Amino acid sequence: MVTKIDSNDTKNAIDLLIGIFGVNNYNLIPIENSVISKSWQYSLNTKQFILRTSPRTIDFDKDKYCSEHFSSKLVPIPKIIRMGKANNGLYYCVSEKCKGIIIDDFEDKYVFRIIPQVLNLAYELRQVRISTEAKYGNFDGEGKAKFDTWKSYLTNILAVDGFTRILYAKVFKLVKYCPEDKFLIHGDFGLNNILSDEGKITGIIDWGDAKYGDFLYDTAWISFWSSKIPYERLFLNYYSQRGISIPYYRERLLCYTCFLGINVLKFLQETKDEKTYGWALKKLKKAVLKL
Predict the structure, then answer these.
(1) Is the Cα dihedral 168, 283, 279, 139 positive or negative?
(2) What fold characterizes domain 101-287?
(3) Nearest CA to 90 among 60, 58, 53?
(4) 3-state secondary structure of 52
């Protein structure tokens, strides 16, 4: 489910850019959007940029923080050029555009060839240094999280009913297997947020759900949304080849699948995406039977 961009949205976006940079020759091209934000790409002086607008600023704040603190050649995060609030009350963010397109938009044969690089990108995220003073869970635009332990973050679910009660019970049962490791987690790690050009990964975007905790959370996320690629097996083999032992691999993945499932179902209900809700519910019901 995406937000619709009409000609009036684009006109407002052009007026916004003119007001910011004082240049008139903008040719904005709408691109795929989230439920909340709207996005365009444009070129200026041979360089390409992305403009996004949203009624909230937290996602842009986190993109900026992650770009400034975690970006590298191995974890390429687009640089934020300008952020602020527009006259219509929306927040805006202008960032550099990574070369290429999101991997989801490629043909399957290209996707399968680049999966080893996706696995390696997840490994490089695991290598990012996190302050020993940082807490756990989702962090804000200043990189600050609020939970003292990873387990307390996972079990801090206030409202559950129906099937989500079963998911929460599963989280509560399996959380004992989850280590108090502290890694950088993208939180929405998938081929819709990873860009590629000429067979190489060129960027990882949309850090609004980033958090600190067990790196296997990202494995659970990309595995949940995939129906074609066996990520659970691929990641286990990858880390084994790297000499990295992962105790309670299946238990941890299932714990995170149930945890994210609670939030996914809630979000899909709120956005009235009945088709995706039905698909997710079916997959989660199958998942809870694993252990």
Answers:
(1) positive
(2) Aminoglycoside 3'-phosphotransferase; Chain: A, domain 2 (3.90.1200)
(3) 53
(4) strand
Residues 6+ apart with CB under 8 A from 66: 77, 207, 210
The domain ranges of the chain are 7-96, 101-287
Angstrom distance (rounded) from CA 133 to CA 31: 38
Report which residue type is found at 3.
T
Residues 222, 240: contact at Cβ < 8 Å?
A: no
Per-residue pLDDT tens over the stretch 224-269 = 999 889 999 999 999 999 999 999 999 999 999 999 999 999 999 9
Domain 7-96 has CATH 3.40.50.150: no
Q: How far is CA 101 from CA 98, 111, 132, 201, in A?
A: 8, 12, 35, 10
CA-CA-CA-CA torsion sign (164, 168, 173, 174): positive
Residue 265's contacts (CB-CB under 8 Å, 6 or more residues apart) are 163, 164, 277, 280, 281, 284
Q: What is the longest distance spanned by two Cα atoms in the chain?
A: 60
Residue with tokens 């949203």: 54
Count of residues for the chain? 291
- Report the range of poorest mean pLDDT among 15-29, 74-88, 105-119, 256-270: 15-29
